[in-house]
Amino acid sequence: MRRRDFCAASLIGALALSLAEPAPAQAPRLKAVATFSILGDFVQNVGGDRIELITLVGPGGDAHVYTPSPADARRVADAAIVFVNGLGFEGWLSRLIKTSGAKAIVETAKGVTPLKSETEHGHNHDHGGLDPHAWQNVANAKIYVGNIRDALVRLDPAGADVYQANAAAYLAKLDALEREVTSAIERIPPERRKVITSHDAFGYFAKAYGLQFIAPQGGSTDAEASAKDVARIIRQIRREKIPAVFLENVSDPRLIQRIAQESGARVGQELYSDALSPPDGPAGTYIDMVRHNIKALSAALSP
User: How far apart are CA 123 and CA 232, in angstroms?
Assistant: First the structure.
């Protein structure tokens, strides 16, 4: 009896001690900021549950004409890391960084071979001479993901295994996406691979996959197309029998609608260039965006 009583007392004591010991505290999530929705999607795929992400320019927002608020400066100041595109895309960024005193800035397009931001008629636009829309080439998106992974590992080495595994899984999806895009373009006859869009956001896509994009607005939605440029494009559509023109989700549709009306080309589906759609839309993620765009282009350009 004494032995049984002793064992019972020991068990009760051990149970009481285990109940009294607090559970190990969960490490707080790393506060991160991304400047716009496409970049935010990359960061979330790599960071996963270890980060708390705020995206400044959300779905459907136009980062070309964005004006940061005082609340944005506070968000950037509170963040442990801020992910930006670079290549002059965020024209408002330097003021925001100066105001907020941001701690760690990561240019995610670092390592991309930049294209010059020029229309075919030689006009430079307002990204410092460089085309910042590098994510439109899926191969470049993989460079972004590698830069995000490496930055998070440096800042949070305890989460290195998580970041590396997340990045590897996402990179495999991007490999499959790249194969899809290449296969879809190959099915479009070469003579029909000409596209009219609102502003010049698809230069990297064009160079990588063999399409020609023509844009009256140039590299920024904040630029205005001249009457001469619009007339030239209308003549080109008629002369080369370009089958369709495309609206973009961040551009005023009236210019493209006017070009379509005067040229006789039909208006294709909306393309997503600088921003994702809301989550329940057709381009709620980067992968969904690229798939939507290639389906829209294929539908309009295939015979």
Answer: 14
